[in-house]
Amino acid sequence: MSDKTRHTVWLPEDIWDKVESHYQEDNCSTKNEYIEKAIRFYTGYLNAQSANDYLPRLLSQMLEAKLDGLGDRIGRLLFKLTVEESMMMHIIASDTDVDVPTLDRLRGRCVMDAKRTNGQISFNEILKFQKSL
User: Fold this and answer.
1) CA angle, corner 60, sides to 58 and 61, nearest 5?
2) Could you say which DSSP state residue 48 is in?
3) What's CA 65's distance to the chain center, in Å?
4) How far apart (Å, rounded) are the C-alpha atoms in residues 70 and 62?
5) What is d(CA 89, CA 83) in angstroms, rounded to the nearest whole number?
6) What pLDDT tens digit does each residue of the chain (133 aa) get?
7) What φ, ψ does residue 131 adopt, rounded to 5°?
């Protein structure tokens, strides 16, 4: 525990009433403890205000760098996925007898499946549907 010295502080009556009515709500054992916590909190608030010019700029630079890296990575992964999907479509198209109207109906069903499942399409569900036709 730090050494404490006695200080006289003059407070308006309404402020002292707030101290008396709130110090126990804050789990403070004394009014002095409550006042000390309030001063530390407000001092921290003021220190944060003076750092506003520096911290937001630093944080935004860090976030921007992280988001740029994430965007690049997602872009590369989506490109790779598109290449693999294109390969799969070419293989399936070369070995299937589906006509264009059937393909259009299938696209509509797939859009509905994606909306219904919020993109969480299950191969098991699709297999069950296809086997029931």
Assistant:
1) 65
2) H
3) 17
4) 12
5) 10
6) 568 888 888 999 999 999 999 999 999 999 999 999 999 988 887 877 666 666 677 777 888 899 999 999 999 999 999 999 999 999 998 899 899 999 999 999 999 999 999 999 999 988 998 898 7
7) -75, -20
Tokens of 81: 């996925």
What's this model's pTM, rounded to 2 decimal places?
0.46
Tokens of 26: 């804050």
- Nearest-Å Rg of the Cα atoms of the chain is 33
Question: Which amino acid type is present at position 34?
Answer: Y
Cβ neighbours of residue 31 closer than 8 Å, sequence gap 6 or more: 19, 20, 23
Amino acid (1-letter code) at residue 13: E
In whole angstroms, give the CA distance from residue 13 to residue 11: 6
